Amino acid sequence: MAELSTIARPYAEALFGVARADSAGLAAWAELVAEMAQAAAHPDVRSAIADPKLDNAQRVELFTATLKSELSPAARNFIKLLVDNQRLLLLPEIASQFLWLKNRHEGSADAEIASAFPLTDAQVADLVAGLEKKFGVKIKPIVRVDASLIGGVRVSVGDQVLDTSVRAQLDRMRDALVA
């Protein structure tokens, strides 16, 4: 079976093309796609959508009723397409790829920064400046505390990871001693 990201990619690309051409703008579409992904990821929604007693029109209505946002005809058509192709539950992966396409188009990237201790605003700003220089894109930091790192930081930008944590250094030493 194909990987979920492979199946989701054409839907994300098609949706991104529609969003770029729409006067609402990419930011509005990104919010809507995130809302749809959150709804599709909810266990109650997932089980309701999978109910074999429902036909596709009922699935579309059920899913759109779970959303707070008003849907444009293009968004409603996208949901109908996903339901018709039995891909509605792929919305979290589609949303992830849509966000990646949006960031690439805008010349930016999300950076997940995990630190063993809370970082000050100045430390985050310094780290972001260094990351922007390294990656050549505008960085949007997502900072969280992860005490299991013991010390240092672990940064993920897309599929690249920079791990300078004490935990990673200890793991490398253990691997060297075992080898």
From TrEMBL:
Keywords, alphabetical: ATP synthesis, Cell membrane, CF(1), Hydrogen ion transport, Ion transport, Membrane, Transport
Pfam families linked: OSCP (PF00213)
UniProt cross-references to InterPro entries, sorted A to Z: ATP_synth_OSCP/delta_N_sf, ATPase_OSCP/dsu
Domain of life per record: Bacteria
Membrane topology: Peripheral membrane protein
Compartment(s) where it occurs, according to its Swiss-Prot or TrEMBL record: Cell membrane; Membrane
Keyword Cell membrane on entry: yes
Predominant location: membrane
Entry keyword Protein transport: no
Single Gene Ontology MF annotation: proton-transporting ATP synthase activity, rotational mechanism
Annotated Gene Ontology cellular component terms: plasma membrane; proton-transporting ATP synthase complex
Function: This protein is part of the stalk that links CF(0) to CF(1). It either transmits conformational changes from CF(0) to CF(1) or is implicated in proton conduction.
Family note: Belongs to the ATPase delta chain family.
PANTHER family on file: ATP SYNTHASE DELTA CHAIN (PTHR11910)
NCBIfam families hit by this protein: ATP_synt_delta, PRK05758.2-2
This protein's name: ATP synthase subunit delta
Lineage, top ranks: Bacteria, Pseudomonadati, Pseudomonadota, Betaproteobacteria, Burkholderiales
Name of the gene: atpH
